[in-house]
Amino acid sequence: MKTGEHVHIISAGEWIHTAFPAILRQLPGVTRVYVITAMESPGSRQDPRIDARRVATHRATEAVKELAASLSIPFTREMAGSPVYESAGMVLARIRRDNRRARITFDLSGGPKELCMALLSLAPWTGGEVWSAFDGKAPRRVPVPDRDIRGMMTNVNYQTILAVLLRNRPVPVPATGLPFIPRQYLFNQVWPLYVRQRVRTPDPKKPVPQFKRGWKPANDLSQATFSWFLKMLTGAGLIEEGTGSKNQKEKSYRITQNGETAFRFFADPATNSLVKQILDGL
Question: How far apart are CA 270 and CA 282, in angstroms?
Fold first, then answer.
Protein backbone atom coordinates (compact mmCIF):
# COMPACT_ATOMS: atom_id res chain seq x y z
CA MET A 1 0.00 0.00 0.00
CA LYS A 2 1.28 3.45 -0.92
CA THR A 3 2.27 6.06 1.64
CA GLY A 4 -0.59 8.47 2.24
CA GLU A 5 -3.27 5.78 2.41
CA HIS A 6 -5.75 6.24 5.27
CA VAL A 7 -7.76 3.30 6.64
CA HIS A 8 -10.81 4.14 8.75
CA ILE A 9 -12.31 1.41 10.97
CA ILE A 10 -15.85 1.69 12.39
CA SER A 11 -17.52 -0.39 15.09
CA ALA A 12 -20.95 -1.21 13.68
CA GLY A 13 -23.85 0.48 15.47
CA GLU A 14 -27.28 1.98 14.85
CA TRP A 15 -26.08 5.55 14.22
CA ILE A 16 -22.78 5.12 12.38
CA HIS A 17 -24.32 6.55 9.21
CA THR A 18 -24.75 9.91 10.99
CA ALA A 19 -21.26 9.89 12.53
CA PHE A 20 -19.50 8.89 9.27
CA PRO A 21 -20.06 12.18 7.39
CA ALA A 22 -18.84 14.13 10.42
CA ILE A 23 -15.74 11.94 10.59
CA LEU A 24 -15.04 12.56 6.91
CA ARG A 25 -15.17 16.31 7.54
CA GLN A 26 -12.81 15.96 10.51
CA LEU A 27 -10.50 13.47 8.79
CA PRO A 28 -10.37 14.24 5.06
CA GLY A 29 -8.39 11.83 2.93
CA VAL A 30 -9.88 8.49 4.04
CA THR A 31 -9.03 5.96 1.31
CA ARG A 32 -10.55 2.74 2.69
CA VAL A 33 -13.33 1.95 5.17
CA TYR A 34 -13.84 -1.16 7.28
CA VAL A 35 -16.97 -1.74 9.38
CA ILE A 36 -16.55 -4.40 12.09
CA THR A 37 -19.74 -6.07 13.28
CA ALA A 38 -20.06 -8.21 16.40
CA MET A 39 -21.49 -11.64 15.68
CA GLU A 40 -24.82 -12.30 17.36
CA SER A 41 -25.03 -14.79 20.20
CA PRO A 42 -27.33 -17.84 19.82
CA GLY A 43 -30.92 -17.03 20.70
CA SER A 44 -30.51 -13.26 20.36
CA ARG A 45 -32.99 -13.15 17.47
CA GLN A 46 -35.72 -14.22 19.89
CA ASP A 47 -35.43 -10.87 21.69
CA PRO A 48 -37.44 -8.19 19.80
CA ARG A 49 -35.21 -5.37 21.08
CA ILE A 50 -32.02 -7.08 19.93
CA ASP A 51 -33.60 -7.95 16.60
CA ALA A 52 -34.66 -4.32 16.06
CA ARG A 53 -31.16 -3.13 16.93
CA ARG A 54 -29.69 -5.64 14.47
CA VAL A 55 -31.92 -4.35 11.66
CA ALA A 56 -31.05 -0.72 12.48
CA THR A 57 -27.32 -1.55 12.53
CA HIS A 58 -27.59 -3.29 9.16
CA ARG A 59 -29.35 -0.25 7.63
CA ALA A 60 -26.75 2.12 9.09
CA THR A 61 -23.94 -0.05 7.72
CA GLU A 62 -25.52 -0.08 4.27
CA ALA A 63 -25.82 3.73 4.43
CA VAL A 64 -22.09 4.00 5.24
CA LYS A 65 -21.35 1.64 2.34
CA GLU A 66 -23.41 3.77 -0.07
CA LEU A 67 -21.76 7.01 1.03
CA ALA A 68 -18.30 5.43 0.71
CA ALA A 69 -19.18 4.18 -2.79
CA SER A 70 -20.34 7.66 -3.83
CA LEU A 71 -16.91 8.96 -2.83
CA SER A 72 -15.08 6.03 -4.52
CA ILE A 73 -13.81 4.77 -1.16
CA PRO A 74 -13.45 0.95 -0.98
CA PHE A 75 -15.68 -0.57 1.71
CA THR A 76 -15.23 -3.88 3.57
CA ARG A 77 -17.40 -5.46 6.25
CA GLU A 78 -15.70 -7.69 8.83
CA MET A 79 -17.21 -9.94 11.51
CA ALA A 80 -15.86 -10.32 15.06
CA GLY A 81 -16.98 -13.58 16.64
CA SER A 82 -16.72 -14.90 20.17
CA PRO A 83 -14.64 -14.32 22.21
CA VAL A 84 -14.76 -10.78 20.90
CA TYR A 85 -11.28 -9.63 21.98
CA GLU A 86 -9.44 -12.51 20.31
CA SER A 87 -11.58 -12.36 17.18
CA ALA A 88 -11.28 -8.57 16.85
CA GLY A 89 -7.53 -8.90 17.34
CA MET A 90 -7.26 -11.31 14.41
CA VAL A 91 -9.36 -9.00 12.22
CA LEU A 92 -7.25 -5.94 13.08
CA ALA A 93 -3.99 -7.85 12.60
CA ARG A 94 -5.09 -8.82 9.10
CA ILE A 95 -6.11 -5.23 8.32
CA ARG A 96 -2.77 -3.96 9.61
CA ARG A 97 -0.81 -6.47 7.51
CA ASP A 98 -2.82 -5.60 4.39
CA ASN A 99 -2.26 -1.86 4.98
CA ARG A 100 1.22 -1.74 6.48
CA ARG A 101 2.04 1.85 5.58
CA ALA A 102 -1.41 3.35 6.01
CA ARG A 103 -2.62 5.74 8.65
CA ILE A 104 -5.31 4.02 10.74
CA THR A 105 -8.19 5.70 12.56
CA PHE A 106 -11.12 4.25 14.52
CA ASP A 107 -14.66 5.50 15.07
CA LEU A 108 -16.06 3.91 18.23
CA SER A 109 -19.22 6.01 18.37
CA GLY A 110 -21.50 2.98 18.02
CA GLY A 111 -21.68 -0.74 18.47
CA PRO A 112 -21.93 -3.08 21.48
CA LYS A 113 -19.81 -2.35 24.53
CA GLU A 114 -17.75 -5.54 24.24
CA LEU A 115 -16.71 -4.74 20.67
CA CYS A 116 -15.89 -1.10 21.42
CA MET A 117 -13.80 -2.05 24.46
CA ALA A 118 -11.92 -4.67 22.44
CA LEU A 119 -11.15 -2.22 19.62
CA LEU A 120 -10.13 0.49 22.09
CA SER A 121 -7.65 -1.81 23.84
CA LEU A 122 -6.29 -3.12 20.53
CA ALA A 123 -5.95 0.28 18.83
CA PRO A 124 -2.47 1.01 20.26
CA TRP A 125 -1.15 -2.16 18.62
CA THR A 126 -2.14 -0.79 15.21
CA GLY A 127 -0.68 2.65 15.88
CA GLY A 128 -4.17 3.96 15.21
CA GLU A 129 -6.04 7.03 16.42
CA VAL A 130 -9.37 6.57 18.20
CA TRP A 131 -12.29 8.93 17.59
CA SER A 132 -15.78 8.96 19.07
CA ALA A 133 -18.86 11.20 19.06
CA PHE A 134 -19.78 11.60 22.72
CA ASP A 135 -23.39 12.49 23.57
CA GLY A 136 -24.21 12.87 19.89
CA LYS A 137 -21.83 15.80 19.48
CA ALA A 138 -19.06 16.24 16.93
CA PRO A 139 -16.48 13.42 16.99
CA ARG A 140 -13.27 14.09 18.82
CA ARG A 141 -10.10 12.15 19.42
CA VAL A 142 -9.85 9.75 22.38
CA PRO A 143 -6.40 9.60 24.04
CA VAL A 144 -4.88 6.10 23.99
CA PRO A 145 -1.57 4.98 25.52
CA ASP A 146 1.48 4.94 23.27
CA ARG A 147 3.13 1.54 22.79
CA ASP A 148 6.74 1.30 21.63
CA ILE A 149 6.56 -2.37 20.63
CA ARG A 150 6.53 -1.62 16.90
CA GLY A 151 10.12 -0.32 16.93
CA MET A 152 11.29 -3.24 19.04
CA MET A 153 9.76 -5.77 16.68
CA THR A 154 11.74 -4.45 13.73
CA ASN A 155 14.53 -6.66 15.06
CA VAL A 156 13.83 -9.89 13.18
CA ASN A 157 15.34 -11.98 15.97
CA TYR A 158 12.55 -11.00 18.38
CA GLN A 159 10.07 -12.16 15.76
CA THR A 160 11.91 -15.48 15.45
CA ILE A 161 11.91 -16.11 19.21
CA LEU A 162 8.17 -15.46 19.43
CA ALA A 163 7.58 -17.68 16.39
CA VAL A 164 9.49 -20.57 18.03
CA LEU A 165 7.43 -20.19 21.21
CA LEU A 166 4.20 -20.14 19.19
CA ARG A 167 5.29 -23.19 17.17
CA ASN A 168 5.80 -25.15 20.39
CA ARG A 169 2.47 -24.09 21.85
CA PRO A 170 0.10 -27.05 22.30
CA VAL A 171 -3.25 -26.99 20.53
CA PRO A 172 -5.68 -26.76 22.16
CA VAL A 173 -4.15 -24.69 24.94
CA PRO A 174 -4.45 -26.59 28.25
CA ALA A 175 -6.65 -25.09 30.95
CA THR A 176 -3.63 -24.80 33.26
CA GLY A 177 -1.91 -22.41 30.84
CA LEU A 178 0.90 -22.68 28.32
CA PRO A 179 3.90 -24.85 29.22
CA PHE A 180 7.32 -23.24 29.60
CA ILE A 181 9.99 -23.97 26.97
CA PRO A 182 13.54 -24.70 28.33
CA ARG A 183 16.03 -21.96 27.54
CA GLN A 184 18.57 -24.25 25.87
CA TYR A 185 15.94 -25.79 23.59
CA LEU A 186 14.74 -22.31 22.65
CA PHE A 187 18.33 -21.23 21.93
CA ASN A 188 18.94 -24.25 19.68
CA GLN A 189 15.77 -23.46 17.70
CA VAL A 190 16.63 -19.77 17.26
CA TRP A 191 20.37 -20.16 16.52
CA PRO A 192 20.05 -21.29 12.86
CA LEU A 193 17.69 -18.39 12.12
CA TYR A 194 19.64 -15.66 13.89
CA VAL A 195 20.35 -12.53 11.84
CA ARG A 196 23.03 -10.13 13.04
CA GLN A 197 21.73 -6.53 13.15
CA ARG A 198 25.16 -4.92 13.31
CA VAL A 199 28.16 -5.72 11.16
CA ARG A 200 31.01 -7.12 13.22
CA THR A 201 34.50 -5.87 12.35
CA PRO A 202 36.78 -8.92 12.15
CA ASP A 203 39.86 -8.97 14.36
CA PRO A 204 42.85 -9.90 12.15
CA LYS A 205 44.73 -11.21 15.21
CA LYS A 206 42.09 -13.83 15.97
CA PRO A 207 41.48 -16.95 13.88
CA VAL A 208 38.23 -17.21 11.98
CA PRO A 209 35.93 -19.49 14.00
CA GLN A 210 34.57 -22.62 12.35
CA PHE A 211 30.91 -23.55 12.67
CA LYS A 212 28.98 -26.69 11.88
CA ARG A 213 26.15 -26.85 9.38
CA GLY A 214 27.89 -24.33 7.14
CA TRP A 215 26.57 -21.20 8.87
CA LYS A 216 28.53 -17.99 8.44
CA PRO A 217 30.49 -16.71 11.48
CA ALA A 218 28.67 -13.36 11.23
CA ASN A 219 25.39 -15.10 12.00
CA ASP A 220 26.57 -16.97 15.10
CA LEU A 221 24.33 -16.22 18.10
CA SER A 222 26.16 -15.90 21.42
CA GLN A 223 24.60 -16.84 24.75
CA ALA A 224 25.08 -13.27 25.96
CA THR A 225 23.18 -11.81 22.98
CA PHE A 226 20.43 -14.39 23.39
CA SER A 227 20.11 -13.51 27.08
CA TRP A 228 19.73 -9.86 26.10
CA PHE A 229 16.94 -10.73 23.67
CA LEU A 230 15.10 -12.68 26.38
CA LYS A 231 15.57 -9.84 28.86
CA MET A 232 14.10 -7.30 26.44
CA LEU A 233 11.14 -9.51 25.55
CA THR A 234 10.45 -10.26 29.21
CA GLY A 235 10.70 -6.59 30.16
CA ALA A 236 8.23 -5.67 27.41
CA GLY A 237 5.78 -8.28 28.70
CA LEU A 238 5.90 -10.31 25.48
CA ILE A 239 7.28 -13.47 27.10
CA GLU A 240 7.24 -14.84 30.63
CA GLU A 241 10.15 -16.44 32.49
CA GLY A 242 9.78 -19.52 34.68
CA THR A 243 11.69 -22.61 35.76
CA GLY A 244 11.75 -26.04 34.18
CA SER A 245 9.70 -28.85 35.67
CA LYS A 246 12.66 -31.24 35.77
CA ASN A 247 15.59 -28.88 36.30
CA GLN A 248 14.61 -26.07 38.66
CA LYS A 249 17.87 -24.23 37.93
CA GLU A 250 17.24 -23.98 34.19
CA LYS A 251 15.17 -21.01 33.08
CA SER A 252 12.23 -21.56 30.77
CA TYR A 253 10.01 -19.24 28.75
CA ARG A 254 6.55 -19.01 27.25
CA ILE A 255 4.78 -16.40 25.15
CA THR A 256 2.20 -14.10 26.75
CA GLN A 257 -1.06 -12.86 25.23
CA ASN A 258 0.63 -9.50 24.56
CA GLY A 259 3.47 -11.37 22.88
CA GLU A 260 1.07 -13.15 20.55
CA THR A 261 -0.70 -9.85 19.82
CA ALA A 262 2.63 -8.15 19.02
CA PHE A 263 3.56 -11.04 16.74
CA ARG A 264 0.23 -10.85 14.88
CA PHE A 265 0.56 -7.12 14.26
CA PHE A 266 4.28 -6.55 13.74
CA ALA A 267 5.89 -9.79 12.51
CA ASP A 268 6.92 -9.71 8.87
CA PRO A 269 6.50 -12.93 6.83
CA ALA A 270 9.58 -11.90 4.83
CA THR A 271 11.72 -12.36 7.96
CA ASN A 272 12.11 -16.12 7.52
CA SER A 273 10.07 -19.18 6.61
CA LEU A 274 9.21 -19.97 10.24
CA VAL A 275 7.66 -16.55 10.87
CA LYS A 276 5.67 -16.85 7.63
CA GLN A 277 4.49 -20.35 8.60
CA ILE A 278 3.26 -19.20 12.02
CA LEU A 279 1.57 -16.08 10.62
CA ASP A 280 -0.22 -18.15 8.00
CA GLY A 281 -1.48 -20.47 10.74
CA LEU A 282 -2.81 -17.77 13.05
Answer: 16
Whether pTM exceeds 0.90: no
Q: Locate all alpha helices (DSSP H) within the chain, ordered by sequence.
A: 16-26, 48-70, 84-98, 113-126, 149-152, 156-167, 183-190, 223-235, 257-266, 273-281
Neighbours of 168 (CB within 10 A): 15
The shares of helix, strand and coil residues in the chain, as percent rounded to the nearest 5, are 50, 15, 35
Residue 78, φ and ψ in degrees, nearest 5: -120, 150
Query: Cα(168)–Cα(103) distance, rounded to whole angstroms?
Result: 34
pLDDT per residue over 115-158, tens digit each?
Answer: 999 999 999 888 899 998 765 567 888 877 666 788 888 899 99
Pick the CATH number of 6-146 from 3.30.70.120, 3.30.420.110, 3.10.180.10, 3.40.50.10770: 3.40.50.10770
